[in-house]
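Please go through the sequence and fold tokens given here and tell me how the chain folds. Record follows.
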Amino acid sequence: MEALALLGIAGCDRVGQAEWFRKLLTEGEHLNRTVHKTLLSRRTMAQEFTEADLSPHFRSNGTSNPENPAYQALAANGFRDWILKVEGMVDKPLQLSMTQLRAMPRRTQITRHDCVEGWSAIAKWSGVPLSHVLNDAHPRSDARFVVFHCGDPMEGPGSEFYYESIDMDDAFHPQTILAYDLNDRELPIANGAPLRLRVERQLGYKHAKYLSRIEVVSSLDTIRGGKGGYWEDGHGYQWYAGI
């Protein structure tokens, strides 16, 4: 799927409308699923780099400053009142402040971000492993997916705010983190402050920004259009974007 990063010079919206692109994504998803199931372990680690490899700039993909009054109020207060909710099919729903998240076990990784718009960049991310948060919430045995609800409003029917999802294999992968620092500094608003998802073996649109709520579910059927994400529901992108 790395070849997809060469596509979309005109941007995600215009490319996503093209029928040839939708067919290519469908074929690519089928191929990726086959490869990952037959040749690769879902626990395979994404390549990590050194600080010498860091890109000089990590651009903002998608929204760079949410036009959302509630989000802007939180940002104006330095996100001191921001809370991450973890709910759904869990035995212990959580409400976590940034102070609590920063007190949890921390993982730092230098990885490459591959965007379907046609660019890549290497950056250093720090945050709490999603697995740690989920273990604290105690997902139920029949839980299959983790849905990320975000603070950036989007256009289109049935998609008031950005949302994405991953399965439990990706959710418990050691490189899947809830990142609060970028290159040893607090995550900027343009890159998803105060918290964003890093799921390093997936393309950029899976890396949800401006997180506000995590929902554990058994099915994606009742989440908006039922395909698991904003781009998947409205623009023909495929849910599995493994690289």
